[in-house]
């Protein structure tokens, strides 16, 4: 009886010691799981913030993209020779392509982050389930550990020792938690890489967009200055042409008056000659008056021919000047239209998202 009492006591003590060790093992893995879960939650929040920053940055580029597209649309309203594929248009097309490319890069990275967030949630649920199971097991084993021969809750459960409901051994049990922690660590490592990649992408796209925005504005400024100079020169040339038209019109008026002024003297001379043809017989003498009258008619005739030729030349010059005036007015109109369009585009481009907004901060 003493031997069996000692054996029973020894076995109960050994079982208690083993259960105490088991509680220590459970507590160790619980603390590891809690620590890993906290770090995973922190990294997941950071990753979720990174995704939101990418989405915000992509949304911020929508405004500048629409403005660039509207500038391209407005510049299609340029006329004639000004409807040219100039540096401004090249930069605008490049700007549109860059905005779309940056948006695509951001959205693809956001999709990868979203997939990683799903992996993180799976790892989080695995840790939480494991932690919950560890807490339940700790509670049960602690309750069993504290049972004594004098405890009120002890009773007989005949045949319980023949039921084996275990699903693991200590090695697989420890490996299960270790695998969960390792999966979580891998998820955190991938999350950190994605966060770093997000920072690089936002920094690079922000710099690229700002550089292209500046290049396009410089091209606009140069083009506006160039068109303004040409328009001013055309307007000066037009003013000079209008002055020349005014002068040639005065010349034509004076020539017409001069021609009209010569008609009466010619009529007088011709009428005198005609009247003297009716002189009788020997009186039809080629005297000095006759000679002078004939010379006067020829001289006035030559004068009229010269004046009429000058008048025709002046009228031809006037016609050329009027054609030149129409062409200059059309060119001025074309340049004024282009100048107005590009100035309007520049007014639209006065605002651009700040760098903090382009990297996802609101």
The largest β sheet comes out as:
none
Strand content: under 5%
Q: Which quaternary structure do these chains form? A: single chain
Radius of gyration over all CA atoms, rounded: 52 Å
Structural class: mainly alpha
Total E-strand runs: 0
Tell me the name of the CATH class of the largest domain: Mainly Alpha
Distance between the termini: 82 Å
Shape, per Cα inertia axes: rod-shaped
SSE pattern: HHHHHH
Helix percent reads over 70%
Give the low-pLDDT segments. none
Count of DSSP H/I helices: 6
CATH architecture heading of the largest domain: Up-down Bundle
Average pLDDT taken over every residue: 89
CATH topology of the largest domain, by name, is: Ferritin
Q: What number of domains? A: 2
């Amino acid at each position: 009886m003493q031997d069996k009492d000692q054996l029973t006591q020894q076995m109960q003590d050994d079982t208690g010691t083993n259960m105490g060790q088991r509680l220590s093992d459970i507590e160790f893995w619980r603390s590891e799981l809690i620590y890993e879960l906290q770090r995973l939650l922190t990294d997941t929040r950071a990753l979720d913030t990174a995704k939101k920053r990418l989405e915000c940055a992509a949304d911020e580029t929508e405004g500048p993209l629409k403005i660039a597209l509207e500038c391209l649309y407005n510049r299609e309203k340029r006329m004639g020779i000004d409807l040219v594929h100039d540096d401004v248009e090249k930069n605008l097309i490049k700007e549109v392509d860059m905005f779309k490319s940056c948006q695509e890069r951001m959205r693809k990275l956001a999709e990868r982050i979203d997939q990683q967030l799903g992996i993180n949630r799976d790892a989080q649920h695995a840790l939480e389930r494991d932690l919950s199971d560890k807490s339940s097991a700790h509670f049960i084993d602690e309750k069993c550990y504290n049972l004594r021969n004098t405890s009120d809750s002890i009773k007989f459960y005949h045949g319980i020792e023949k039921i084996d409901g275990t699903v693991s051994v200590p090695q697989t049990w420890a490996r299960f938690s270790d695998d969960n922690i390792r999966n979580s660590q891998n998820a955190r490592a991938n999350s950190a890489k994605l966060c770093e990649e997000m920072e690089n992408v936002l920094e690079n796209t922000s710099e690229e967009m700002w550089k292209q925005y500046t290049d396009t504005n410089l091209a606009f400024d140069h083009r506006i200055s160039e068109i303004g100079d040409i328009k001013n020169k055309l307007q000066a040339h037009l003013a000079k042409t209008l002055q020349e038209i005014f002068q040639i019109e005065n010349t034509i008026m004076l020539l017409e008056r001069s021609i009209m002024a010569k008609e009466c003297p010619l009529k007088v001379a011709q009428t005198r000659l005609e009247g003297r043809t009716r002189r009788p017989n020997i009186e039809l003498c080629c005297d000095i008056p006759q000679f002078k009258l004939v010379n006067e008619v020829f001289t006035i005739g030559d004068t009229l021919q010269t004046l009429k030729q000058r008048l025709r030349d002046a009228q031809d010059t006037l016609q050329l000047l009027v054609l030149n005036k129409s062409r200059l007015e059309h060119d001025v109109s074309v340049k004024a239209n282009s100048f107005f369009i590009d100035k309007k585009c520049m007014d639209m481009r006065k605002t651009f998202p700040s760098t903090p907004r382009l990297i996802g901060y609101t």
